[in-house]
Amino acid sequence: MAVPTSWILAAVLTDIAVYCVQGWRWNLLLSPVGSLPKLRTMQAIYVGLFANELLPLRPGEVIRSFLQARWSGVPFSVVVSSVVIERLFDGIWLIASFFVASFFVQLPELLVVGSRILAVLLVGIGCLLAFAIFAKDKAERWIQRTIWAQGFHHLLAALTSMSQSPSFYRSFLLSGLYLALQAAPIYFLASGFNLGLSLGECAILLVIIRLGAVPPQAPGNVGTFQWLVVIGVMLFGVDRETAIGYATLLFLVITVPLWMVGFVALLATKMKLSQLRMDAENEPETTHASTSSPSSAGR
C-alpha 121: how far from its chain's center? Predict the structure, then answer.
């Protein structure tokens, strides 16, 4: 089926906007501990996304954290913690969206179980972060008995700075926009395909895709992504053949531009992806732990 170019272009542009919002959120979250160049943040995000598309086990989060730490001077452990907070925010919005979606459509049992597991993990991570932030003295006493005391001291100070800043809460609200924007490419292509899906139904499809992508996948979620889209679209009465065509085009529209921009972003680092992964995974805490204080990072 021929899809008008205007719908495809709208889907591509809104997909790019998703990662612009992600960069904005990341800068907001880290703003109390360092001054971060916006273009560098976007470059780090796209290199990480590109790595996730090509390499197993999703090393992109570690790679983008490594690049951000190197370019900004913020301690690597602090940058990684900001990524964990991002994922916590995303998870909260996703679980809330899943809860709302469950009132409108009968969701697959596998996703229901997955959402419960994710909710438990989010509660666990949230409790640990809350303990580190709101019971800092107790956390520091416990940390003093570990061999990583110096590095964790900087991490606790940075977490406290981030959590006490208004930007922390603004970044949480931006996470809602970040998730909502991801429904836009789904909606534009569904309109181009004449599937008759409303924006709300496309939002439900997004929740299905995001929850299904939580477990470890093949690089780029190839296969799993298409299967989730087909299953989700068929819940709204679309025939299987049309659903497969739509899933294939949606995959290409949201991944091909990512590959292209990610490849250019990687070239700009003047490093090979394999070397970046090795450096990121072997990043020693002492490289950045010597920063005098969180407020001086990135100067």
Answer: 16
Q: Is residue 297 part of a domain?
A: no
Range of the domain at 46: 5-279
Residue 299, in any domain of the structure: no
- pLDDT digits 0-9 by tens, 216-249: 566 656 678 888 899 989 988 899 999 999 999 9
Other Cβ atoms within 10 Å of 66 Cβ, number: 25
Report yes or no on 292 lying in a domain: no
Handedness of CA 73, 75, 77, 80 (dihedral sign): negative
Report the predicted TM-score, pTM, of the whole model to 2 decimal places. Answer: 0.80
- Residue 36: CB atoms within 10 A of its CB come to 24
Q: Are 212 and 232 in contact (CB under 8 A)?
A: no
Give the C-alpha separation, 55 to 53, whole Å: 6
Cα separations in angstroms, 153 against 83, 148, 156, 275: 18, 9, 5, 30
Report the phi/psi class of residue 74: left, alpha or beta, with left for phi > 0 and alpha for psi in -120 to 50.
beta
H or E element that contains 240: helix 240-269
| Total domains, the chain | 1
Rounded Cα distance, 133 and 23, in Å: 24
Taking a C-beta distance cutoff of 8 angstroms, is the pair 220, 241 a contact?
no
Q: Which of 254, 22, 146 is nearest to 155 (CA)?
A: 146
Examine residue 70 and state whether it is found in any structural domain, yes or no.
yes
Phi, psi at 74, each rounded to 5°: -70, 140
Q: What is the pLDDT of residues 4-42, one digit of tens each?
A: 899 999 999 999 999 999 999 999 999 888 777 788 999
> Can you read off the two tokens belonging to residue 70?
């190197």
